[in-house]
Design brief:
CATH class of the largest domain: Mainly Alpha
Largest sheet: none
Distance between the termini: 32 Å
InterPro entries: MFS, MFS_DHA3_Transporter, MFS_trans_sf
Number of strands: 0
Radius of gyration: 21 Å
Oligomer: single chain
CATH architecture of the largest domain: Up-down Bundle
Keywords: Membrane, Transmembrane, Transmembrane helix
Order of helices and strands: HHHHHHHHHHHHHHHHHH
Helix content: over 70%
Protein name: Permease of the major facilitator superfamily
Transmembrane segments: 16-36, 48-66, 86-108, 168-187, 213-234, 254-276, 288-308, 314-332, 353-375, 381-402
CATH topology of the largest domain: Growth Hormone, Chain: A
CATH superfamily of the largest domain: MFS general substrate transporter like domains
């Protein structure tokens, strides 16, 4: 408790908490995206699916051009630009007269999300300058917990706001995005990355440093990050489908109530997981990555067990498995980013963050495509078995990452 109070005395700490909570995603829209676009904007389910696919594909294509932009302007301008673009995306989506404007808003959201990833580099560099590198995991875990808390509150407020007026949740989204711009300017006020990056003529020195990203350790990091984020991101959607498929004979209202309760609990679980992360990291450091990968595999095994006759309380297995998948996401992402930002070279940090972001998008896109093909021929159990096998692969990758990291440290 005392250490928490001491952290809150740090102005940058408080500003970074707010920045991360407001700029990680478009609040309110992330809750009501399907409902708003289909019922309010009149978009068909096919159009919504196309929007999701095109946005994900665009996000992959735009990664390298955005990296070049970030190299030229530095973290400060990147974060500030990202927060403004985020707000513009909310405006486009809210007041879009048709599909094209919504698609533009989705593209802007992808750009803003990538640029805002540089906030992590600003945190790392700030702590390094103040010789407090050991606090990165604590700061980022607290920021993740704050994000989960804000998202839980917006989830609870979304329905009553939508009931009053179908546009109110999106108006609230725009307002919070504007507040996020303020905190983006505050956390980046003292960052000097632009000056350092621009000293490299024609980016040749920067490009040379970035080529060093592709060593054996980082390749393992990218592969593990792609698989893990796909399983705990897109994979959660298939876990919901697994719920619905297994409980298909149950009353639909019961299934909806169950999923609603679990979704709310997920945010509480993520708060707890980030608090636990600080304690675990203090004891075993980066080896926490191995433990969270084991928990992910356990969660997916529990998602598949109810399909076999020897299990007992099937609902409990499904719920615990789903919550375990949500529990491990934030700690893992924090750890991988911590390892990837060990190098003080800012150009290389930017390359690592952009490449990790690209790996995350690629993993989700591939998992979604493969799962769609599998569901055309088999039931959802086949997808859950595939995801369980991939979770086993992440355990091996995490063991290799920790060994490689210890050898290079």
């Amino acid at each position: 408790m005392r250490s928490c109070i001491q952290r809150f005395k740090d102005r940058f700490y408080r500003e970074y908490l707010w920045y991360t909570a407001l700029e990680t995603d478009l609040l309110f829209f992330v809750v009501c995206d399907v409902l708003f676009l289909t019922q309010v904007k009149g978009m068909s389910k096919e159009s919504f699916s196309l929007l999701t696919f095109l946005s994900l594909a665009f996000s992959l294509i735009i990664q390298y051009p955005l990296l070049r932009f970030i190299n030229r302007v530095g973290n400060k301008t990147a974060v500030r630009t990202g927060s403004v673009v985020f707000a513009l995306s909310a405006v486009c989506i809210t007041f879009a007269p048709g599909f094209i404007t919504v698609l533009i808003g989705g593209f802007l959201k992808c750009i803003g999300h990538t640029l805002n990833a540089m906030g992590t580099a600003i945190l790392k560099n700030r702590l390094t300058t103040e010789h407090r590198e050991d606090r990165f995991v604590s700061y980022q875990s607290d920021a993740n917990a704050a994000t989960s808390l804000i998202m839980m509150l917006t989830s609870l407020l979304c329905l009553p706001l939508f009931t009053l007026n179908e546009y109110l949740p999106m108006v609230a989204c725009i307002v919070l995005s504007l507040v996020g711009i303020v905190f983006a300017f505050l956390i980046s006020h003292d960052d000097d990355s632009a000056q350092e990056i621009n000293l490299a003529p024609n980016l040749k020195q920067s490009a040379k440093r970035q080529r060093n990203v592709w060593n054996s350790l980082n390749i393992l990091l990218f592969a593990s990050f792609a698989i893990f984020c796909a399983l705990t991101g897109t994979g959660l959607s298939y876990a919901k489908l697994n719920f619905q498929q297994y409980l298909i004979n149950q009353d639909p209202e019961y299934i909806m109530m169950l999923l609603s309760v679990i979704t709310t609990v997920v945010y509480l679980i993520r708060i707890v997981s980030n608090m636990a992360m600080r304690k675990a990291y203090g004891k075993v450091k980066n080896r926490v990555a191995i433990f969270v990968s084991i928990l992910l595999a356990a969660g997916l095994v529990m998602q598949t067990l109810p399909w076999f006759s020897f299990t007992g309380d099937t609902i409990a297995f499904l719920c615990i498995g789903y919550l375990l998948m949500a529990f491990v996401r934030d700690p893992y992402i924090t750890l991988i980013r911590h390892i990837s930002l060990e190098d003080d070279d800012k150009a290389r940090q930017q390359s690592m963050l952009i490449t990790l972001n690209g790996a995350q998008k690629a993993g989700s896109l591939i998992l979604s495509a493969v799962a769609t093909l599998m569901l055309n021929h088999w039931d959802v159990l086949s997808v859950m078995i595939l995801m369980t096998a991939l979770a086993m692969v992440t355990i091996v990758l995490c063991v290799l990452i920790i060994r490689k990291y210890q050898q290079t440290s």
